[in-house]
Structures are given as structure tokens and as C-alpha cells.
Amino acid sequence: MSEQEESGGESTLTVLLAGGVNLAIAILKLIAGIITGSGAMLSEAAHSFADTITEVLLLTALKRSERPADRLHPFGYGKERYFWSLLAAVSIFASGAMFALYEGFTTVFGESTDQTSPIVGYAVLGIAFLLEGTSWLQAIRQVRKEARQERRSFFTYLRMIDDPAPKTVLFEDSAALIGLLLAFAGIGLHQLTGSSVWDGIASILIGLLLACVAYLLGRTNRGLLVGRQADPRIVRGVRDHLVAAPEIEAVVDLQTMLMGTDQVLVCARVDFDDSLGAADVEFACVRIAGELTEGFNDITEVFIEPVPRSDPNLRAAVLARYGDLSTRPIEDSL
């Protein structure tokens, strides 16, 4: 099994577990919210339903992004994972955060409501915390495992990750655990003070929490969807490999882009030795491209263009994109 297939299977397991947990919790919270009359509990029910929708969208992302390349999409469908993950972030905000904020403001500024059977709310929150914790631990386990494989720290890998599924599950489960604590505090303070304002404040805080999570996930997927550069270590390795090639005198320009999870496009403009013939340059391009795809598992497409390093228009374009390359390497400026 390839590293990409193993990662995809792990992501699918993480998403399926999170989806099943969220659906069960959403139903429990809805029942508890109706029984107790707690706005925070109803907000948490909306939160869990939003998370369930998110998991459906993530599953769609995982399946559709695995389709092979075809005539209409010669580079494959890898970026579909980012599109559907972006929709998942929007769903968290639209269906979770907005309802929680509405419920919170309605409770705070509306008529005070009596609390009934708070013990039911506490019991459901406790069960939900255990279930959410199970899903959260699976997401943590996957991210830590992949971070070790990449030889990165946990948070560095989380920032550089090109698979939005585990990051989305981790963020939403973390928000869910914090939201449960907020709901518990809202119900408890309502019971102690007799004022439903605390319940409403908890709902507002849950809504703000979800809005923040939606923003962070949306920003991550926006960057991936627009076309982020490859891991700087891959960029550096590709550049070093090109520089070391005996046929190449200089690397004039090097561009990389994530085409999907574990799918990197490499475009290199290089100045070949002028003594080489056309056939020599062709064979060198084929050989170097093969070496790059074999040496870096994530690289799926390589394009090498012979260019003169002295071309003023090309040099101006490179300087406009990266700045002075004599003082700042390409991979450090991206």
C-alpha cells in the first residue's frame, strides 16, 4: 500500500468516526435541549448537526478527489478535496455559528425562561464529552503519526498539512469539546442563579467559537485551493537535484504547486550546457523528470523548460515574483 493510499484510508476512518459520533451526539443534545429548555444545549445540538454535515462534505471530498485524470482534467481531481473542505468550513459557520448566535441573543435579550430537568442536560453533556473525546483522540493520533513520518513538530505539520480532512476534524472536535464545557457552565450558572442570561451567554460564546474555527479552516482551504507552493523541503530538494545535474548550468526559475493531497506539480526553467545537442537536452529532461518523481513521492508531474539565463524578460519576471535571489533562496521567499 502506498503512502498516499494509507493516508487516504486513515483520513476516511477519521471522518467516518467523527461523523457517526456527531450524529449520535446531535440527536442526544436536541432531545436534552427540548427537555431542559436550555438555549446553550440547543446551540450545541446545532453545532453537532453542522459537524455531521461537515463530515458528509469531507467524505465527498475524499471520494471525488481520488478520481483519476481524464481529458477534461489532465491533472486529476485532487483539488476537489479543497473545494468540498471549503464548503465544510462554510457549513460550520452558516448552520452552526449563526444558529448559536441567534439562540444566544434571543435568550439574553428575550424573556427569561425556566430551566427544567438540568440533570438531563448534565448527563447528555457528559456522554457527548466522552464520544467527542474518542473522535478527537483519533484525529490527534492521525496528525501525530503523520507528523512523525514527516519529521516535523505537531504544530508545524498542522500548519503545513495538505490534507484538510484530519485538520478539519481536529479543529471541529476541539471546538466541540470546548463548546460542551461552555454549555455545561451555562446550564450550571442558570441553575445556580435562576437567570437564563448565563445560558444565552454560553450560546453566544459557542457561536463565536464556531465562527473562529470556520474562519481558520476557510483560510487554510482557500490557500490550498488557490494553489499553494509545495513543502519548502521538497522545493529545496528539487532545486538541489537540478543544480547537481551535469547537463544543467543554472536553475533560472522553479515553481511548484499543490495539485491535491500528496500531489505536487513542478515547473523548472533551466539553462542547459550550450555544448549539448537537442537530443541530449531531450534525454536529460526525461531522465531528470524521472529521477524527481522517483526521489520525491509527492511529485506527480514535472515540466522542464530550457531557457537562457541571460534573458532580461525572464529575469525580470523571476525578480518580480521572488525578489533578489542572490540574497534570498526561492524556497525561503515563497
TrEMBL record:
Record's subcellular location: Membrane
Gene Ontology CC terms: membrane
Highest taxon of source: Bacteria
Gene Ontology biological-process entries: zinc ion transport
Keywords: Membrane, Transmembrane, Transmembrane helix, Transport
Gene Ontology molecular functions: monoatomic cation transmembrane transporter activity
Main location: membrane
SUPFAM superfamilies attached to this UniProt entry: Cation efflux protein cytoplasmic domain-like, Cation efflux protein transmembrane domain-like
InterPro entries: Cation_efflux, Cation_efflux_CTD_sf, Cation_efflux_TM, Cation_efflux_TMD_sf, SLC30A9
Ranges of residues in domain Cation efflux protein transmembrane: 16-225
Spans traversing the lipid bilayer: 12-35, 41-62, 82-102, 122-140, 169-189, 201-218
Membrane topology recorded in Swiss-Prot or TrEMBL: Multi-pass membrane protein
Protein name: Cation diffusion facilitator family transporter
Source organism phylogeny: Bacteria, Bacillati, Actinomycetota, Actinomycetes, Pseudonocardiales
